[in-house]
Design a protein that fits this description.
The protein is an alpha+beta fold and about 220 residues long. It has six helices and ten strands.
Length: about 220
């Protein structure tokens, strides 16, 4: 499977880039105690760090708010998924465990301060994914249970249309315990160099495989 970035994004954000990881033969299940413990401790640490600080002052959060502005999406009405996680932690509404893949996704989203999406590859259509800016009238039902407007929002599309975004993913391809093959999109901070982006993406992939087994391959696209 390949991923490309449409000119509707790069015309507005020339340095836009993503990390793209493909996993095969993985085993998703309840999170190991190590991961649950690290996620809990990390959230407690973030909570204390944010005691006298606004979430929007965090570099990665601010960078992705700026991306939303550049594509025409109001970041105050549509908060990207990493910002939403940080706001939960600031309220001490800590994330509860879902499964090993989602928990790890959330952990790295907090650590890297960027939105990250992970999707069941078998629920996606075709062998080509494309990132683009959503068009007027486009919507999908999100994992938040609502019908979400995709206009001016960066979206990930397969052969059947949009399925994911740095705001909220659709309900079409979530990763669960039945997932054996998955793809992951790291919506990187555009200010990162290619070398830093590759190091970050590989680090996430290695940690994921250490928990889930299987094999993985990664690339950084754009920038």
């Amino acid at each position: 499977m390949e991923i490309t970035i449409d000119s509707s994004i790069t015309n507005k954000i020339p340095e836009f880039k993503v990390g793209f990881i493909q996993y095969h033969h993985i085993e998703v299940g309840p999170s190991p105690q190590m991961l649950k413990g690290r996620l809990q401790l990390f959230q407690e640490s973030i909570f204390f760090d944010l005691h006298d600080k606004n979430v929007t002052e965090i570099e990665g959060i601010s960078a992705w708010r700026d991306i939303f502005r550049k594509t025409g999406k109001d970041p105050n009405r549509y908060r990207h998924s990493a910002e939403a996680l940080f706001r939960r932690v600031k309220k001490q509404n800590y994330l509860t465990t879902i499964n090993s893949a989602i928990d790890l996704n959330n952990f790295f989203s907090l650590q890297y301060e960027v939105p990250i999406g992970i999707y069941d590859k078998e629920r996606l259509s075709g062998d080509q994914l494309r990132l683009k800016v959503g068009e007027s009238g486009q919507t999908y039902t999100g994992l938040n249970g609502r019908e979400n407007s995709l206009e001016n929002l960066i979206v990930a599309c397969d052969g059947d249309g949009p399925f994911g975004s740095p705001f909220v993913d659709s309900e079409r391809a979530p990763v669960g315990e039945e997932t054996k093959n998955a793809v992951q999109i790291i919506f990187l901070n555009p200010s990162l160099s290619i070398e830093e982006s590759e190091k970050l993406t590989k680090s996430l992939m290695d940690m994921f495989i250490s928990i889930h087994g299987g094999e993985g391959s990664f690339e950084v696209v754009g920038g």
